[in-house]
Design a protein that fits this description.
- By secondary structure, the protein is of the alpha+beta class.
- It has three domains: 111 residues, Efflux pump adaptor protein, beta barrel domain (Elongation Factor Tu (Ef-tu), domain 3), CATH 2.40.30; 60 residues, RNA polymerase II/Efflux pump adaptor protein, barrel-sandwich hybrid domain (OB fold (Dihydrolipoamide Acetyltransferase, E2P), Beta Barrel), CATH 2.40.50; 102 residues.
- It contains three helices and 16 strands.
- The chain has a seven-stranded mixed β-barrel.
- Helix 2 runs antiparallel to helix 3.
- The chain is elongated.
Length: 285
């Protein structure tokens, strides 16, 4: 669970800006939590998680009825296979090449014979043979064009497969980040509409500390400085420390107070921190 520790409290600091900055009673709050919605209208067929489950990024959390989407995907796959076969079938092109070669050879031999013996081949016959050659050339061009169209059709069908797969994916709800499922907001076998929240997930592994400091004394030089958060945790109010560093110093000053907003992030070791906890933050040299 990633939390936000808002520190708008008293800051105990030495006169030197390089000295440790101590903030008491720092509050721990969630920083990243998402209500995941349904993407498509339909029946929510099942949840694959329950409250309290720790999930990984991209883990499947819930499914909606995808029978029609899956059928469309299957049809798109078959159409893509047909288009692939056609795009790789160059039989017509090779046949046209052979036919052209034969026609050209026949015309050439006849033309040479007519030159040797004027009466052996009539002009009409030579014209017909020449026409056959031209027809063979056009047939070759048509075969080449058909093959180019087949390859383009394959690309179109491939995009159709991707589109169909996306529609299937829209029926699946996946975790956007590693975190904990804290609330199921509907039940399996209920109808859901697009945008309707179905579950809530919170990030656990990092916390954020936000503090307002004197803008006249502190600035960008704080970025990267190590921090330590000390919190009393149950049982027995045992004190536990969490390490981190300053990750952001705002370039803006608050116009009324002259304070600057500073963030530090700490690692929630073993997921011990909970929202609402309070502790002491120290920004070190």
């Amino acid at each position: 669970m990633e939390f936000l520790i808002v520190l708008a409290l008293s800051v105990l600091a030495n006169d030197s800006p390089a000295s440790p900055i101590v903030v008491e009673d720092a509050a721990v709050k969630l920083i990243r939590h998402v209500r995941l919605p349904a993407n498509e209208p339909g029946v929510l067929t099942e949840f694959l998680v329950k409250e309290g489950d720790i999930v990984e990024q991209d883990q499947l959390l819930a499914k909606s009825d995808d029978r029609l989407a899956a059928l469309d995907k299957h049809i798109a796959d078959l159409e893509f296979q047909v288009a692939t076969e056609k795009s790789e079938n160059d039989v017509d092109e090779r046949y046209a090449e052979k036919s052209l070669a034969v026609a050209q050879s026949e015309w050439q031999l006849s033309a040479e014979a007519a030159q040797r013996v004027a009466t052996s081949i009539s002009a009409t016959e030579l014209s017909k043979l020449k026409l056959v050659v031209e027809q063979a050339k056009l047939a070759r061009e048509q075969a080449q064009r058909d093959l180019r169209i087949a390859k383009l059709t394959k690309q179109v069908k491939q995009r159709a497969v991707e589109s169909a797969q996306q529609k299937v994916e829209l029926r699946l709800t996946r975790a956007p980040f590693k975190g904990m499922i804290v609330e199921l907001m509907t039940q399996a076998n209920e109808w859901v509409d697009p945008g309707q929240p179905i579950l809530r997930i919170v990030q656990l592994d990092r916390l954020r500390v936000e503090v307002n400091l004197d803008g006249k004394r502190y600035g960008p030089e704080l970025k990267g400085r190590p921090v330590k958060l000390k919190v009393a945790l149950p049982p027995g109010d045992r004190e536990v420390e969490f390490d981190g560093e300053v990750t952001f110093v705002s370039p803006e000053l608050q116009p009324v107070t002259g304070q600057v907003r500073v963030w530090a992030e700490v690692i929630n070791r073993d997921l011990l921190l909970r929202p609402g906890s309070r502790g002491t933050l120290t920004i070190r040299k």
